[in-house]
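Anyone up for a design puzzle?
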């Protein structure tokens, strides 16, 4: 494989609390089944603790059971409709084009990925779905009538780490467990870890944050400045050296978030040029 003439930068995002305030189920689905968010999540936690089960599988089962009780069909199209109502933080709608444009000016190809414990089909219903090269998230298995019948993919905080290695090797399949474990020369990996930027809001993102930072990439903890608990979590992650930067959940063009990401892109471009010079004799 020949040397690339430009670096690829992968921006990998958690979704809930990172690009959107709250959990995606709270923007229509929970209300449609006649519950309040706190009530829904408490019931989900009770299932998980009572059965010593996965929190992710527990919330997926509760969604399935409560939708059935309420007479709500759960097809991909239905999830997408709920996803259309998910709120996004300031600047998120323009964020991707702004970052892509900056990367293009610097001779860098920017790609965006979701790595979430939320539902892929809901994210696919949001107005930013088209911005992602791949959405790695939870999903259901659907029957011949297109209705959800069983969990297909459950992504907890440790399962998230596998997708970093898939992005690293250019593997977009969730099912693949062969290519991702094959030995591959560092020079042949599509997105080296130093070219990754991971953005998350909480402690469930820590394994991914640590891996990206440990392998030379950059991890960013975002926080809602109006939420003291979230702000304290971000500060703790920085203090514990789990992340490189912390920043408010403001994605507008003049934001600190934009400045950090653009500066990282600059660094990746410079490192790429220095590596090319080191190969010259």
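Challenge accepted. My sequence:
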């Amino acid at each position: 494989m020949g040397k690339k003439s430009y670096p690829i930068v992968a921006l990998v995002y958690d979704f809930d609390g990172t690009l959107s305030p709250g959990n995606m189920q709270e923007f229509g689905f929970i209300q449609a089944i006649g519950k309040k968010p706190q009530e829904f999540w408490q019931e989900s936690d009770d299932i998980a603790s009572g059965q010593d089960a996965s929190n992710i599988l527990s919330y997926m089962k509760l969604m399935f059971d409560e939708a059935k009780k309420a007479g709500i069909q759960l097809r991909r199209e239905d999830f997408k409709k709920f996803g259309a109502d998910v709120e996004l933080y300031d600047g998120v709608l323009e964020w991707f084009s702004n970052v892509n444009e900056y990367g293009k000016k610097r001779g860098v190809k920017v790609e965006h990925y979701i790595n979430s414990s939320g539902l892929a089909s809901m994210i696919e219903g949001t107005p930013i779905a088209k911005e992602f090269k791949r959405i790695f998230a939870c999903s259901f298995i659907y029957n011949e009538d297109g209705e959800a019948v069983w969990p297909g993919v459950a992504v907890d905080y440790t399962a998230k780490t596998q997708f970093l290695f898939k992005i690293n090797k250019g593997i977009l399949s969730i099912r693949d467990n062969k290519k991702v474990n094959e030995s591959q020369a560092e020079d042949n990996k599509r997105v080296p870890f130093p070219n990754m930027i991971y953005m998350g809001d909480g402690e469930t993102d820590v394994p991914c944050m640590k891996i990206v930072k440990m392998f030379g990439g950059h991890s960013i903890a975002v926080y809602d400045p109006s939420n003291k608990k979230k702000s304290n979590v971000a500060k703790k992650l920085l203090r514990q050296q789990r992340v490189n930067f912390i920043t408010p959940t403001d994605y507008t063009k003049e934001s600190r978030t934009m400045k950090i990401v653009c500066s990282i892109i600059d660094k990746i471009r410079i490192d790429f040029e220095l590596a090319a010079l080191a190969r010259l004799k």
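A detail worth pointing out: The chain has a mean pLDDT of 94.
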